[in-house]
Amino acid sequence: MVTLADVAQHAGVSASTVSYVLSGKRSISASTRARVERSIEQLGYHPNAGARALASNRSNIIALMVPLRTDMYVPVMMEIAIAVATTARTYGYDVLLLTGEEGADAVRRIEGSALADAMILMDVELHDDRLPPLRAARRPGVLIGLPAETDGLSCVDLDFAAAGALCAEHLAGLGHREIAVIGEAPGVYERLTGFAERTLSGLRERCGELGLRLLHRPCEGSYASVSATVGRIFDERPGTTAFVVQNEAATDPLLALLRQQRRAVPEDVSVVAICPDQVAVQASVPLTSVALPAQEMGRHAVEQVVAKLAGRGGDEVVLLKPELTVRESAGPRAVAGDPLP
Amino acid sequence: MVTLADVAQHAGVSASTVSYVLSGKRSISASTRARVERSIEQLGYHPNAGARALASNRSNIIALMVPLRTDMYVPVMMEIAIAVATTARTYGYDVLLLTGEEGADAVRRIEGSALADAMILMDVELHDDRLPPLRAARRPGVLIGLPAETDGLSCVDLDFAAAGALCAEHLAGLGHREIAVIGEAPGVYERLTGFAERTLSGLRERCGELGLRLLHRPCEGSYASVSATVGRIFDERPGTTAFVVQNEAATDPLLALLRQQRRAVPEDVSVVAICPDQVAVQASVPLTSVALPAQEMGRHAVEQVVAKLAGRGGDEVVLLKPELTVRESAGPRAVAGDPLP
DNA sequence: GGCCGTAGTCGAAGCGCTTCGACCCTTCTA
DNA sequence: TAGAAGGGTCGAAGCGCTTCGACTACGGCC
């Protein structure tokens, strides 16, 4: 393995000079710099990560904790993870993948061992037990999601309340008066992740303002359970003309069901989803949807981490503004006497 | 930060003794061990990762390279990644997440910087440009997937040829004589990942032996493209009574289409999928399927890596035996005069 | 012309750990 | 009962890097 000392000898300078060429922390003459860089190139030198971490007290690693379960919004998680890894690389950081399994212990372990310089936590619950050790840590932490108490922490998330409001507005604008929400699986609500509730409250509030009737039903992603849920909704509110879906897995079954029931989308029933764009585009009827900006969230999280590590900027809660893309699944409310298209 | 020396002082022993308690590389009296362990506990000591890596030349990190693209079998990738991370932890390793973006350079970087002790590569192509630097590296590497040349490398993958054969056998056993394969997107075949071709050759061979007619069509995952593909298949081979689907994204659109065309599954048409169990279970008709054993693959890969790092075992190609689970989407071929159930 | 400030370089002291050789003491064996 | 054989512990030498202080040389200033 080629070391700093080898490079120094090859270039005819001292080890510290090579180090300063690498870090740029002291000025180096152009000629020396060129010579050193040529030696690095020729010898194929890569700094030893362990030695560097030991000496500088910086590992250049960011830990990313992803949820263990693979039953929910997996593509979003994956997309965030990849965005985090990619963005981190552009700032010279690598990413350590932790699973939720270890929970708070993982936070303590990383902090204690100095394995990573900072942590990014996904799938944050309202009262997450990883937060106390994270607050106590001397390393910066950024959450993707929004806990009950955010002081001392940085957070990035979609503004789900605004997303809910946006759905309500769009449907109201199309003339709909009765809306049903097909929500996440009951387990999601029980785990108190918060985002589902925030969407709902945004929806409720704006529906109130606009005079819409709103019905909410949690729902598993399976075909059977979507079928049961939709059945109950139409029983209870036969006047329902629009659905808001916040459950990736439920979109396809819902469209299939409506088709089967001879309810045309969007002519008879409108559907608006809150889901990744990819899901919306691939659906059997391209979905008018509010995007889950996975990449943007990952990128933001890394940028906050990097800023904190550079001593810039403090704690910050960033709620990304939702954007609704009009596709084909939502249209004007059908009223009695409407001419067929 | 509490160090080894702090623990040593607290326990009244030398630093090396603490180190030996931790590593178990020399025998330590029960009383000393107990005293040291109590000190570690009380002080909340965690070994510094950088120092340990520097001194021992082992980082206890395994690098995992996942594909950058998020357009294909994402849940499988995620499941593998999580299985790798979880299994690695049980052996005391952490996982570094690399994206495919850096390609061969990432392999060289990890090797040069000693950031990780070993590498696991996913989404391996037949002639992958990461393989030469991996072969040249002094650290063990394990592939998830099967390249054209495997010498000097360990590989784990599903035996896709056997999976194909298994599908053919199952359908033949149910009396089907004409089978159509809905394959991966054309891009997958062009990228030469190999697994799609292996499935096909397994299918072809067994179909030949069993006297079945086989038709293969690549297909994008979108509803429109599945619709077009199925249309062409029935035009060309009206006698087709069974589908083999190797394309996660295509299963739901296919079932929806068949329903729309009034072809009942499994009464009129049988469907067998090669996909993760989760997809099979959640489909509108639970799919008889050959599972993609994501977890098992991840686990195996880590175990091979760990064995190699321990000096045990050499290069090995492990092809996991496929298993077919009977669910509801495949049944006996309908023949003229069949009584209705 | 002496003095200061600055750019450019070097040497040496660690960072916190592992590991080798050395040492002491007890126990077993001939 | 002497010597060998281990078990248990310690001290010290690194691992490859960063960083601090010190040193040289040079130009500008009064």
From TrEMBL, chains A, B:
PROSITE patterns named among the record's database cross-references: HTH_LACI_1 (PS00356), HTH_LACI_2 (PS50932)
Keyword DNA-binding: yes
Species of the source: Streptomyces hebeiensis
Domain HTH lacI-type: 2-56
Protein name (record): LacI family DNA-binding transcriptional regulator
Bilayer-spanning residue ranges: none
Organism placement in taxonomy: Bacteria, Bacillati, Actinomycetota, Actinomycetes, Kitasatosporales
Keyword Magnesium appears in the UniProt entry: no
Keywords: DNA-binding, Transcription, Transcription regulation
